[in-house]
């Protein structure tokens, strides 16, 4: 006797997570009598953080729904922009996403990141404690129940990663307001108060300074910023919302 099955259609954006048989419309998936829809979706390799609306025979269903044989299930991608209610929008990035963290900070987006690997349980606990959206390319990490909210980062290239996160969450951009080294807020700094921290050439050439209120690193606008300026300009042009 064959096992009961349902038919699953994954949104095109989600098909990279699944094995090849599930990359077509209405792929048959064997079920048991007790597994919820959420469990079925995860068992296909799709992190629940990436699943948007779930439709069963065309009607919205909860992840707790236990499918029965013959049902047609459609798994949509998360809507963009995705709203994350319950806390101000802020992020926590895993150890592999340091470049993305610095670029988000450059744009004024609150992006916590530790360059040391503190381990999956600690990251998940930090996400919960500080209500931060955990960004990762590690599906196992995103499956941890204790995370506050999470999102899979689809590219391994920092410029595409940045566009992915900005288009998905539409954070308010406030370039040059946050320390790229530690995520602390910047404050304007008078030249004479930061002078002893500057090399002579910098002290002579530049007048616009800001200082991190946490780690006291000093920032100034200068020609060497052109690569960063380009990142900021591109992001603001495409995703707007600049408060600066
Ligand atoms: Zn700092």
Automatic annotation (TrEMBL):
Domain annotation Mut7-C RNAse: ranges: 90-231
- Pfam assignment, any one: Mut7-C
The residues covered by the Ubiquitin Mut7-C domain are 4-82
Question: Which protein, by its recorded name, is this?
Answer: Mut7-C ubiquitin/RNAse domain-containing protein
């Amino acid at each position: 006797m064959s096992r009961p099955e349902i038919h699953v259609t994954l949104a095109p954006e989600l098909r990279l997570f699944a094995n090849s048989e599930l990359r077509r419309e209405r792929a048959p998936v064997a079920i048991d009598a007790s597994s919820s829809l959420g469990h079925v979706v995860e068992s296909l390799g799709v992190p629940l953080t990436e699943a948007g609306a779930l439709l069963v025979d065309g009607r919205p269903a909860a992840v707790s729904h236990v499918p029965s044989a013959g049902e047609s299930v459609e798994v949509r991608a998360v809507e963009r922009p995705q709203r994350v209610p319950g806390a101000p929008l802020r992020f926590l990035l895993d150890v592999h996403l340091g470049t993305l963290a610095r670029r988000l900070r450059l744009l004024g987006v609150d992006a916590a990141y530790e360059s040391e690997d503190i381990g999956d349980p600690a990251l998940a606990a930090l996400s919960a404690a500080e209500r931060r959206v955990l960004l990762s390319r590690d599906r196992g990490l995103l499956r941890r129940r204790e995370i506050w909210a999470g999102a899979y980062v689809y590219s391994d290239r920092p410029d595409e990663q940045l566009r992915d996160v900005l288009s998905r969450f539409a954070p308010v951009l406030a370039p040059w307001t946050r320390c790229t080294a530690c995520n602390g807020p910047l404050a304007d700094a008078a030249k004479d108060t930061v002078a002893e921290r500057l090399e002579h050439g910098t002290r002579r050439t530049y007048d616009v300074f800001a200082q991190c209120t946490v780690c006291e690193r000093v920032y100034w606008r200068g020609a060497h910023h052109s690569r960063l300026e380009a990142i900021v300009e591109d992001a603001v042009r495409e995703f707007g919302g600049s408060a600066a």
